Amino acid sequence: MTIEFKRNLAVLRDMVTVEEAEGLLEWLQKKPTAKVDLGACVHLHAANLQVLMAAKPVIQVWPADAALRLWLESALTI
Amino acid sequence: MNSLLEQFLSEARDVLQGIGDKLMQLENAPDDAGLMTELFRLVHTLKGNSGLFDFPEMTRVLHAGEDLMDAVRNGRVAYSRILADRLLEAMDFVGLLCEEIEAGQGETARHAAASVHLVKGLRELIASDEPAESSPPAAAASVAELAEDFPDLALDRLPEAARMDAYRRACAGASLHWLVYRPSEQCFYQGDDPFFQVRQTPDLLWGGIEARDPWPPLAELDAYCCLLDFCLLTAAPRAALEEQYRYVADQVTFTPVSRFALVLPQGDTNGGPVYDDFATDARNLLAAGDLAGLARNAGTMLELSSPDLWIASALRWLRLVLESEPDNRAVLGALVESLNSLTTPDWRAAGWVERGETHHADAAIAHSPSQVATASSKPAQPDQASAAADQPSADDGFRSALPILPSDAAAALTAIVATQREILALSDQPVWLSGRISAAAAALSGCLRAAGAADALPELDAAVARALAEERGDALLAWLDDWFPLDGLADAGLKANIPVQPAMPVTPTDTQPAPAPATQPEPDSELKFGRRAEDAIAGPKSLKVDQAKIDRLMNLIGEMVVAKNALPYLAGRAEAVFGVRELSRDIKGHYAVINRIAEEMQDAIMQVRMMPVSFVFQRFPRLVRDISRKLGKEVNLVLEGEDTEADKNIIEALADPLMHIVRNSLDHGIESPEVRRAAGKPATGTLTISAAQESDRVLIEIRDDGKGIDPGVIKRKAYAKGLIDETLLERISDQEAVNLVFAAGFSTAEQVSDLSGRGVGMDVVRNAVEKVNGTVSLTSECGRGTRLRLSLPLSMAVTNVMIVVSDGQRFGVPMDSVVETVRVRRAAIRTIKRSLTTVLRGRIVPLKSINDLLGLDAAPQVNGDDELAVLVVRLGDESVGLLVDDFRETQDIILKPMTGVLGGLSAYAGSALMGDGSVLMVLNVKEMLS
Fold first, then answer.
1. Greater pLDDT, B776 or B351
2. Nearest CA-CA distance, residue A40 and chain B, Å
3. What are the CheW-like domain coordinates in residue numbering (chain B) (predicted)?
4. CATH code of domain A3-73
């Protein structure tokens, strides 16, 4: 699993695959105030990305990967 | 090429042929559901197979074809000629791809655009007939149109730094493309990761992701329905982009972007210093050509303006343009004017638009002035301007030294300064220390000049002088710390990096192709295999064998025949030399057995090489259909005797001549429907191609009921072209005249069309047929039609030759040209005009000595009865006698054509190995006598 769900925080790591999107969506549906930690994330599948874009959770940690961070910042902070 | 691919290609050819045939049949019976199902099955099979390989272009076209056939099969779309045309076109495309792949040009990506075009054509047919069901394909098809109608590229969304960077890249010669990628909603199920795909885009300058529609409530969101759109600005060449997006070519639109479309000043239009003077000065400076002065003024203005202001943005652009292309006065002028009016320059109105593609940019430009105009109505805020003016005096020395730096320049500067710092901090004391300090100083002063901070130069010079005097780098280091504080530097570096980052290709893509496409066929591959099992109706009973293997077998059998032929010699030697008569008899008996087996083997291998003429005939329905439609004629093609067989080489040699003949018949023979009706003939012409076997030859007849050939016209044409002289014009019979069409350079057509009439038709046909020992004859009845007969040998492998002896050497003469062998008394030979002739059965036969023809210095020998041996051979319609010394037996030989240097000797048709190991030269009688 590349997503670890803590009490109110989802920690995404490495390459987040398409299979994770369902779980991420369900979790975010249950926890509207959830936060997301992308610090160790290198890439996330577009399905996950659109879940994050739709759910607009608070991003606690932006990815360390600068390129990914740029992409995500522009997509998730609109 | 792996064996799976080989098999696919060979199957694909068959299936494509099948599809073509079925379409032809459907043309006559459009309502035949069975045919339609069969056709669907073929397209479906081919599509499924192509999915196993990495040919997205092929699969895409086939997929569209399959959808269309499915719609037709279910009665949703009616079969039409347009449909057949498009499908045939699509199949031709697939055939072309197959050929290229086979030729080793596995790179099919460059056909992506063609494939999208074909898919669009096919989808349109589905869409036009069933608007209700057309949503997914129509959406795909209309993306391209959408982009055309809506060229708003929204370039103003891009941060200025990214645009400036793109502008610089464009000035350096890169072509900019705006790429919109709208992945299909189902793309996640096909294993695509659009986000990964765009991150891999080469030379990405900027990218944005947005939702296609407003997001639904989270509870209703489907994570696996892709709702994302991606917009990218990239400096990669188009080919690279097509390669990157080849799997999703139908979901991507590229728009070339002019670099000027990026010149969009942005920001708050209020406040700042008074610009009027600047604009006037700038105009004057520009008119005077004082670009340096203009740059200085702009720099000063920039320092006075807050970086967030619109005016600052415009000034930055002005400086950038000055830097990158100072000669482009029109652009500079437009920018200066826009500074005066505080509106974005209208590049189109400026009239300098230099490239066709800028029309895309217009819209992007056209809609930003409105924002600007509304913003400019706000009251001015002078305090902001003073704040901006204060800024340089702040203790941030770094910033004061480098007023405004483009982001990537800032990054470069950071790197240079860091390196100089390292160099200066070195603690060793080499003899070249002063040189080192000077080098660092030169680098730093260069940096300052480039950054437009020339006023800092005196201080630098002073520091350098101190450092040189002390012979230590410390003074310069101190200056560096003063001007480029370490933390400020890191800060500036970071700041500079952020906007630049998208400019750097995130990861080089070409080295590692996106894994997403590679996994594409997986999800439904299982399904496909399941369906494939149903598709296979019956196991094939025939083997596909590479022709090279057959040829090898044939060569071996040829050698076997030669070895076998040595046995009678051996028997002769056993008897004559060793005097063992019984052994000789046994050898002869055994020879008979081996001979029979060898002949059967030869026969069997010939059978293997035999192919039905349908191999050539099968392409005619399509050819006739296409040509007759192009010419507006109605033609009914009748094929007879398609299962007649002949050697593969013969059949293949037949293909091109037949094509010529059929084209000629359609173009010149069969008349247009009106003319036919006027002549009392049925409006639809009939073209019959029939094949039949007659002893050891194949006869092919091409017959049309067109207007025939008018011998009068031919005669006049031939005379006009100088092919015949006046006496011949008078004497020539109609039949002979008609045969003049075979003369080289002859053309009957009044006009050269793209089908025929260039005068390379019929003589090419005759040459091609004669090359395989065939003959052509033509009969025509004016107004009733033309009949062409080709006569070809069944097989070329074994040649029957007559062996003759002359000057002690043996020569072979092919039996098909031999008419008779006679002995002529020397007294019966006369000399007419210095050439020898004799009279045989009331006809004059010219005689030639074979020794003369071959340059042998010997006279023909007579036998005991004072008779000469004459081999009468056929040469066209005439007979010629060859004077030889003696006749020998006839023999079947395997004729090997001459190769290498000997290949140029046209007097010989080839050579053959005899049973006793000697080599027999086979004469080419026709070449020798002509």
1. B776
2. 17
3. 797-930
4. 3.30.750
Residues A71, A45 contacting (CB under 8 angstroms): no
Judge residue B542's burial from the number of C-beta atoms within 10 Å of its C-beta, 0-12 exposed, 13-18 middle, 19 or more buried.
Answer: exposed
The amino acid at residue A14 is D
Q: Which of B160, B252, B247, B250 is nearest to B206 (CA)?
A: B160
Q: Give the model's pLDDT for residue B403.
A: 47
CA closest to A66 among chain B residues: B501
Question: Whole-angstrom Cα distance, residue B309 to residue B311?
Answer: 5
* pLDDT-based confidence at residue B275 (cuts at 50, 70, 90): low
Cβ-in-10-Å burial (0-12, 13-18, 19+) of B741 comes to buried
Structure tokens at B783: 């107004």
Matching CATH topology for B3-140 and B613-793?
A: no
List, for residues A20-37, the tens digit of each pLDDT value: 888 888 888 888 888 888
Percent above pLDDT 90 for chain B: 4
> For residue B129, what pLDDT is reported?
52
Let me know: does B826 contact B849? Beta carbons within 8 Å: no
Contact (CB<8Å) A66/B497: yes
The size of the A-B interface in CB pairs under 8 A is 81
Tell me which of B379 and B571 has the higher pLDDT: B571
Residue B593 has pLDDT above 90, yes or no: yes
What topology does CATH give the domain B613-793? Heat Shock Protein 90 (3.30.565)
DSSP string covering B306-370: -TTBHHHHHHHHHHHHHHH-TT-HHHHHHHHHHHHHTS---HHHHT---STTHHHHHHHHHTHHH
Architecture of domain B798-929: Beta Barrel (2.40)
Alpha carbon distances (Å) from B434 to B236, B463, B703, B827: 45, 13, 98, 116
**Which residues 211-240 on chain B approach chain A with CB closer than 8 angstroms?**
211, 215-216, 218-219, 221, 223-224, 226-228
CB B635 within 8 A of CB B685: yes
Task: Find the residue in B nearest to A31 (Cα).
Answer: B218
Residue to test with chain B: of A50, A53, A56, most B Cβ within 10 A: A50
A27 to chain B, minimum CA–CA distance in Å? Answer: 11
- Residue B658's H or E segment, with its range, is helix B648-664
Is the pLDDT higher at B879 or at B502? B879
Domain boundaries, chain B: 3-140, 397-503, 547-611, 613-793, 798-929
The answer to whether A54 contacts B221, with C-beta atoms less than 8 Å apart, is: yes
The helix/strand count (H/E) of chain A reads as: 3, 4
Give the per-residue pLDDT at B597: 92
From the candidate CATH numbers 3.30.430.20, 3.40.50.880, 1.20.120.160, 3.40.50.2300, the one assigned to the domain spanning B3-140: 1.20.120.160
Give B325's contacts (C-beta < 8 A, 6+ positions apart): B171, B331
The mean of the pLDDT values for chain A is 85
pLDDT band of residue B144 (cuts 50, 70, 90) is: very low
Residue B916 pLDDT exceeds 90: no
- Which chain B residue has its CA at the smallest distance from A24's CA? B223
Q: What is the pLDDT of residue B29?
A: 79
Listing DSSP states for B131-147 in one string gives GGG-HHHHHHHHHHHHH
Judge whether residue B388 has pLDDT over 50: no
Which residue in chain A has the smallest CA separation from B157? A74
What is the total residue count of chain B? Answer: 930
